[in-house]
């Protein structure tokens, strides 16, 4: 890694040393995620991969994905590109380090990215919950709930206002912890991958998030789309647990376990 960094970074023009992806929105989704390979209309699921589809909604069609893509492209041009330019200006203004000697050790990088997640999760929980208020929901957040069964690119299917409001949380983490270009890049990749994953609609046995305490999974967020409320956090579950906004999800799981026990008895 050191060889690659020292060899490649000097070759890049200064603007190219900034983030090459749109980091600003928690709803930004790229098809490079492992789930995206499986995310084809009407062809979801396998022997090892469970398509959640908790709501019993019809599988997404190519028309659905095209509709989401058009909105994503529109947001990219009108909102995310200006925000990326703002990130570039920030990098120039603070003269963000990009040399190898000042790069943080791996354990420090992990802790700082974790800090970014904690900050954004806190921001997203309270703003997301606020957007579900009856006076705001029809105008700001309803569009994101047009699909009961989420799929990866649907993570970007949001209103302009929501893109800005919830997406602001990304910058709080960036300002607090990303004091090196590598950390900024890492934060972009980590957030995009996490958000794509949680909207993927797949419950897989090799999901690494199962090993992370309090991590929100695709199943956890799918219930939010099914139920229309509760499970407001999409990164960690502790705010939902603290404020009791996961009670309906727990009851849903309890009913599922009881149903399985009855089927086993029969």
From TrEMBL:
Biological process terms in GO annotation: lipid biosynthetic process
Keywords in alphabetical order: Membrane, Transmembrane, Transmembrane helix
Region (Disordered): 9-51
Domain of life, per lineage: Eukaryota
GO CC entries: membrane
Coiled-coil residues: none
Transmembrane segment boundaries: 72-91, 164-188
Alphabetized GO MF terms: iron ion binding; oxidoreductase activity
Compartments, record wording: Membrane
All copies of domain Fatty acid hydroxylase, residue ranges: 115-245
PANTHER family in the cross-refs: STEROL DESATURASE
Protein name as catalogued: Fatty acid hydroxylase domain-containing protein
Organism field: Crocodylus porosus (Saltwater crocodile)
């Amino acid at each position: 890694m050191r060889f690659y960094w020292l060899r490649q970074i000097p070759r890049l023009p200064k603007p190219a040393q900034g983030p090459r992806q749109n980091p600003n929105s928690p709803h930004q989704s790229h098809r490079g995620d492992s789930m995206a390979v499986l995310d084809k209309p009407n062809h979801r699921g396998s022997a090892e991969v469970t398509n959640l589809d908790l709501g019993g909604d019809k599988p997404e069609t190519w028309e659905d994905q095209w509709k989401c893509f058009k909105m994503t492209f529109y947001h990219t041009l009108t909102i995310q590109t200006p925000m990326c330019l703002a990130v570039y200006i920030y990098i120039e203004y603070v003269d963000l380090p990009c040399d190898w000697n000042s790069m943080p050790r791996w354990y420090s990088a992990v802790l700082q990215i974790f800090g970014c997640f904690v900050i954004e999760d806190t921001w997203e929980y309270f703003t997301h919950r606020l957007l579900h208020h009856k006076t705001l929901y029809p105008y700001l957040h309803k569009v994101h709930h047009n699909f009961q069964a989420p799929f990866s690119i649907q993570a970007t299917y949001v209103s302009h206002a929501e893109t800005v409001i919830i997406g602001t949380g990304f910058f709080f983490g960036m300002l607090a912890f990303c004091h090196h270009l590598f950390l900024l890049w890492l934060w972009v990749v980590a957030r995009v991958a996490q958000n794509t994953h949680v909207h993927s609609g797949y419950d897989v046995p090799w999901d690494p998030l199962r090993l992370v305490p309090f991590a929100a999974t695709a199943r956890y967020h799918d219930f939010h789309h099914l139920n229309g409320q509760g499970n407001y956090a999409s990164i960690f579950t502790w705010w939902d647990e603290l404020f009791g906004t996961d009670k309906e999800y727990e009851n849903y799981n309890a009913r599922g376990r009881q149903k399985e026990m009855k089927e086993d008895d029969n």
